[in-house]
Structure formats: C-alpha cells, structure tokens
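BUG: 3D viewer hangs when loading the predicted structure for this chain

Environment: internal workstation, default settings.
Expected: structure renders.
Actual: progress bar stalls at 90%.

Input used:
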Amino acid sequence: MKQSLTGLCKKVDLVDEINKRKSSGLYRVRKIVDFSKGSIATIENEQYINFSSNDYLGLADNIVLKETMIGAVEEYGVGGKSSQLVTGYLKPHRILEEGLAKFLKRDAALVFSSGYLANLAIASVLINKTTIILQDKLNHASLIDAAQLSVGSLVRYRHGDTNHLKILMEKYKKYNLVVMTDAVFSMDGDFAPIVEIAKLCKEYNAVLIVDDAHGIGVLGETGAGLLELKKLDQSQVPLLIGTFGKSFGGSGAFISGNSLFIDAFIQKARTYIYTTAISSSLAVTMTKAIELVINATEERECLYRLTEFYKKSMRKVNLNSNQSMSHIQPYMVGNANKATRLSESLYRDKLLVIAIRPPTVSKNTSRLRISFTAIHDKDQVARLVNCIKNNLDDE
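Structure tokens produced before the viewer hung:
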C-alpha cells in the first residue's frame, strides 16, 4: 500500500509541488497551540502575544458565554446529531435565526455549519446558466469557489474599482447579474466601496451579495457591520453573510436577507441539506453572543483606539505600510521568504504574527496580517511595533 501511494503521489507531481513550496517559502506549517486564553497563546510551555486571532471582541473567553455553553450542553448535549432537514433543527436553532434576523434588520436568517459552506450554498441556489457573477479580485476563496463551482460565469473586477465594475455591468447587462463582495477584506483590512456598488446594482438590476465576516460585531453602532455603518438595508443588499467564528466567539455561520431567498436555500442548498447541523448548545450560546455583541460598545471603541495607536506608532518609526481603516492591519513585505523570516523573528520575540503568502495573496504581496482584538492592550501593541522595527533594522 505504501509503495502504491508513493507512486500515486509521483504521478500527480505532489512530491515536486511540495518541494517547490518548501524552496520558495510557501510551505505551510501548522503550529500546535497548547492553550489560548485572551490575547495569549501558549506553545510548548512558552507564552506568546497573539496578533493572529479573529476573536475581535474577546468573546471566546467571555465568562457569560462560557457559562451559557456549559448550561446548554447539560440540557442539549454536545453534538448536532442530524442534518437540519431531518431531526437536527431544534428550537434553539429557530430562536438563533430569529435573533439574527432582528439584529441585522432582515426578513429571515439561516444557520450553516461554516462560512465556507454558507458561501458555497449560493452556487446551487441563485446561479443559473444565464448568470454573470461579478466579484472583487480580492474576495475570499469561498466566494470565488462558489462562483467557479456554479453553472454561471465568473468575471472579476479590479479590487475596489467601481469604474471597472460599471464597465463590466454595461458589457454584460443582457445577462442576469449577481455581484458578490467581501465587506471587510480579510487580508488587506480595507472596506469595499459598498455604497457605490449598491447604487450600480440598482442601476443595472443586479443582486448584491455581501460577506461581512470580519465586519459584523466590530462595525456599526450595534455591531451589525459595514452595512449598518454605511446605512444600507435589505432592499439594497438582499443577502448578507456572516460568521460566528470571529466577533461572536464561536463557530458556524449564517445567511440573512429576503425571506424568499432564505426559503430557496432551505429547499435547494446542498451545503445546508447534506451536512450535520451546528449543535443546539452552540445555537443557544450564539443567541447569547448576539446580545453581547450588541452591547459591546466599549469593546468596539477599545478596538478602534488600539488600531489607531498602532498606526500612529508605526508612523513614528517610519513604518507606514498599507494601513487600513479596520482592525486588520497588513504589514506588506513582498517576498515570501522575507515575510516568513520576519514572522519567525517575531516568534522568537514571543509574538505570534503569521506570514500570509501566495496563493492566499498574490505573488510578491506577502505580508504580516496583524489583527487586533479588544483584549489587547497598548503595551502589547507598542511591543509589537518595536519588535517589527528592530527586526527590520537587523535584516
């Protein structure tokens, strides 16, 4: 068996591909984290300040949320037990969906096991052979995969370029148009020009689908995301996708919006129908998380202050690299090997800052992806800036 597997690997060039990744600085390695609590990750009994977490509001360790989960596990158990169209849809799931719809001011919501599955659902429901799917060049891989796996045609516009988008909409105006975009781009931290995109969609009668995985919880007065911040409603953005794995401190995801669309997902979305539901205990916990997110005004303000402190501190030491408006700050390096070396140097300084390299980002745009959370403090951020500066000086 071992010999036959080796032969198969050689036939599909896996050995050469992996060796090339190693030599070019693109080989992925998983760090085993022994324990993670707050802003600290413990690895091999050493503590590191974690600047690579998506737990933006610090809710993953929130005592109220943990107590809610413990109580829900006692009542409902641990697992999802079944798919939602068999016996896996319990009252807690319904309450969670109703809570999401109310929070986001939408007709309805539907819970999925992951954000990736939620985005893939779009391919099997809303897209047909006459659909042109227009996507931002830097959209998340799950949005791109959703389009590529569909029967429609994917056309990508230049990042954040509404003039290019308009040219493409004019070119394909005889087709059914769907526009899909991230709200906050996960690797660059910038915002989509969502107001302008919504206006173009209205002009060309296109359906606008927005994934706000990184904005919901952080942006807007109640944490309802970029759409709340920019005062866009369901009539302008019929479908909004979000995740529980970031600001909500849990896991899973959802699609919210027009009730007809949501019903269509229940009837047709393969990634909803043919997978196990999130557990009832998680559904109860995420319902409580909605309440905590809405009331997390102080945490959102803290996150904003920390991000501004970082940007100001970087400018003071003449390091002003692609600063964004959000809690996600890329420090652009360019070369993949150099980005890896910088990440490893920071690791020796007890800072966990992961290097992002191709194919996650384009060639020659490797960077450190620095993500701030409300549980970081200024001393930790100051240490990060000083260590980046010192390690670059030593290059």
